[in-house]
């Protein structure tokens, strides 16, 4: 699987518009995702973060130019984008509750040599629960299944939406550990509200407001500027966002 040339972003989005049932939810969004590390997509609730991810994947109606490693994918259907190495971890996990953990993972395998050992090392608790039905797992364990389904394949890009939402602090740490390890294997575009997790994982941030990009740059630069954090994200400090 070929990757981008040196200094070329893995994902380039230009003039992206997205619509749901005819309503504009993403409006003229442009940004790049570097070929390494974690880029966080931030903003207040309802500003279009999830819709931007879904627009990139073609899950909602969209127009604009989207390039993966220099190749246009904005005219490709979702399954073709996934086949090109874009993995998606949705906000609501979407595990198959009636299937076992092992069956959920097998369904996700698209490579000839799935990375089962990597998944087992990252999620030892899931390895011990391979024969347990996913619907009987805790919320945190289901999030691990959702992440594991993405990581079992070799990816060019991971799109991860709100992975720590609603999780206990201990589980948040485990998810952050898994994402840090995952970022060693593929770049990540991460939607995340917990700014402590963002500070730990992200090198760059893209901030949305009302469906538009209002800031791009260094994660540390944004998070160290309390006025910008309050203006763009609606929180006074990282403890309030955790």
From TrEMBL:
Gene3D superfamilies: P-loop containing nucleotide triphosphate hydrolases (3.40.50.300). The keyword Membrane does not apply. Residues 11-235 form the ABC transporter domain. Keywords: Amino-acid transport, ATP-binding, Nucleotide-binding, Transport. InterPro entries: AAA+_ATPase, ABC_transporter-like_ATP-bd, ABC_transporter-like_CS, BCAA_Transport_ATP-bd_LivF, P-loop_NTPase. CDD domains: ABC_TM1139_LivF_branched. It holds the Pfam family ABC_tran. It comes from the Bacteria. GO terms for molecular function: ATP binding; ATP hydrolysis activity; branched-chain amino acid transmembrane transporter activity. GO terms for biological process: L-amino acid transport. Belongs to the ABC transporter superfamily. This is ATP-binding cassette domain-containing protein.
